[in-house]
Amino acid sequence: MSKKNNPVTQKSGISTNLILTLVVVIVAVVVIGGVLLFNRGGGGNSGGAGAPQAPVAAEVLRKPDSHALMEAPDGKVTMVEFLDFQCPSCHAYYSTAMSKIEKDYAGRITFVTRNYPLEMHPLAQQAARAAEAAALQGKYKEMYHALFDNYADWAAAGQSVSSDEAKANAEFEKYAQQIGLDVNRFNQDRVSPNVQSKIDRDVADAKAVNAPGTPTIFINGRQYDQGNAQTYAEVDQSLRKMLDEELAK
Description:
The protein is an alpha+beta fold. It has helices at residues 16-33, 58-61, 88-104, 124-135, 140-149, 151-154, 165-178, 183-190, 193-208, 232-248, and strands at 67-70, 78-83, 110-115, 156-157, 160-161, 216-219, 222-223. The protein has one domain (40-248): Glutaredoxin. The chain has a five-stranded mixed β-sheet with strand order 1-3-2-6-7. Strands 4-5 form a two-stranded antiparallel ribbon. The longest helix has 18 residues, at 16-33. InterPro entries: Thioredoxin-like_fold (IPR012336), Thioredoxin-like_sf (IPR036249), Thioredoxin_domain (IPR013766).
């Protein structure tokens, strides 16, 4: 999932041409962005409908080798995101919500990210390997930000996603230099079995919790559902509402 090229499912007057146009657009979004237009599984959130589901166990969502972008001393609220670095929706979530939440909730919540590279994104595996290789030198957070902050330089190709591995790898090496990594070690680790095994374990956990695509977010074990949110700004608001509800308990 990339799950949404744009979180909009607007209703208007219906005509045959309009319906056909919408079908074409939705199919294009699914193919290009990995989108499953806001059709997240799991209820029990600030915006979704239906009966709440039982929370997913913390030990399933976060493993000892999972990466936390920040930790809350009290451990009261944990947000876990299964992401794909080349997913257009993950990048949109990052730009409009997650990076801001990371700053605004520092010290108040624990924010954990897990790998879920999708086959529909040609460079997703390579980007995940770059992040995991950086983690072996203690720089996961820095590479996470570099990959998303520079998304247009390696992940995108016009209105689609790029499949240019050589260009992406050159960009990854540049980010490794910028964040102070041993680049030779970084390049060796990127293709190592240990790094691939870490990614594979994350993917297995994503499938175990029935993550419908990317991004899939859990807050204290409850899957976030954007519900009636029609814009990324509204997604940000509904995520914050869910976080605030958990912090207030």
